[in-house]
Q: What sequence folds into this?
């Protein structure tokens, strides 16, 4: 059986849920598809900024380099990604904007793409399931019924995560265990969320993680947990997203699924 292109039941056959006490989820790309355009928007803005400051790299190579850097920081607060851009612009012209300015510019464009989706759900035009990673809600329900502690850790801004988790009807599963940077606080980390669990007496090996990013995958593996990569593919939910699959494999994921069906 290929656990790197698996479905949920294959994963649950391999690891009995009863050996875990905590299930840790990322939000964007792992439970929610509302912001699935974020890499394209962030990378395009960064490439444009680097070109504006005199980058001479061939566009496809520049795109690839920015993509690798940004996806390698996926899971950290947005401001950390923007600090990468600041450093790159400084090397070119020495005249970078602040990371806060870049972050706001990015959030404005991202929000413009997310807002119509939010509005369609809020008005009842579109069902929340439409923008969940397929079957995420049903899986959360099952985990909760099994008595597992559910924890959400996202590098996106807390206010947005709160609101969008509510819209997608997954907010209630996490009670007071929704963790995300307040106003982009760059000191927030998924490692910090996991450390707190360990301080509360949970063992690393009792943590089951689901995420589509390198950071959460590495952090769960670092403490001896089981990390399941979620390589969702918006166009075809049953099929794995190859690019994410490669990234998650490299980060040490124990198995990879396209969704929770
Ligand atoms: Mg994510």
A:
């Amino acid at each position: 059986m290929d656990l790197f292109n698996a479905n949920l039941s294959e994963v649950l056959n391999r690891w009995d849920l009863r050996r875990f006490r905590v299930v840790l989820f990322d939000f964007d790309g792992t439970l929610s598809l509302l912001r699935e355009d974020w890499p394209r928007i962030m990378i395009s803005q960064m490439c444009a900024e680097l070109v504006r400051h005199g980058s001479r790299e061939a566009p496809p190579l520049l795109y690839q380099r920015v993509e690798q850097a940004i996806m390698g920081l996926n899971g950290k607060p947005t401001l950390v990604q923007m600090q990468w851009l600041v450093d790159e612009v400084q090397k070119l012209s020495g005249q970078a904007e602040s990371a806060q300015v870049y972050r706001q510019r990015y959030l404005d464009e991202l929000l413009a793409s997310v807002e119509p989706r939010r509005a369609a759900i809020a008005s009842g035009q579109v069902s929340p399931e439409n923008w969940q990673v397929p079957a995420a809600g049903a899986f959360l329900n099952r985990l909760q019924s099994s008595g597992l502690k559910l924890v959400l850790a996202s590098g996106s801004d807390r206010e947005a995560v709160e609101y969008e988790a509510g819209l997608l009807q997954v907010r209630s599963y996490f009670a007071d265990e929704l963790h995300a940077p307040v106003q982009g606080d760059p000191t927030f980390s998924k490692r910090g969320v996991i450390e707190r669990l360990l301080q509360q007496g949970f063992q690393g090996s009792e943590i089951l993680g689901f995420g589509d990013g390198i950071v959460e995958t590495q952090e769960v593996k670092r403490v001896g947990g089981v990390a399941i990569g979620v390589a969702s593919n918006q166009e075809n939910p049953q099929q794995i997203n190859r690019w994410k699959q490669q990234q998650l494999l490299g980060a040490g994921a124990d198995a990879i699924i396209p969704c929770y069906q």
Q: What stands out?
A: The first strand starts at residue 22 and ends at 25. Strands lie at 22-25, 149-153, 178-179, 207-211, 226-230, 255-257.
